[in-house]
User: What shape does this take?
Amino acid sequence: MACLSVSLLGGCVQPPPTKTLTIDQIISQHNANAAKIPKLRANPQVQVSLKRTDNLLPFNYTFDTATLLLGKEGCPPFGPYNFVLTGKEAGRDIFRLGSNVEQNAYYMWFQAGSNAGLWRGRLSLAGAPGVTIPLDPNQLVAALAVTPLPSDLTSL
Assistant: This one.
């Protein structure tokens, strides 16, 4: 009886897909889905780990409340986009990571007890060599998979 119940848990084996999509078809479907999301508001679970440069212990924290806002209206088709991610504890902002297209700016700051930091820069230079920010907001937005992909992947 135990063997029978274990074998039933596995379910039916699904056959492999019979149709293979080309990269152009995948990008087209992805971009059609991304176009349906002009803005996004979410309350994600956020855990932050910051490595310190002063040889003290790293800062690790999981936030009870986080808010993510993304706006693509009026922005270039492939970004950057207006974006903010905040983490709160007991109603107080502990960190904020974001970008503002109109101001050509990105930023990150945090303050938790005696731990604090601020990074900021121009969006046009984000990701350039020597630019130090713990997390580039453009990369985080791209990881959400709600932004379009270029049809010419050689332009990446």
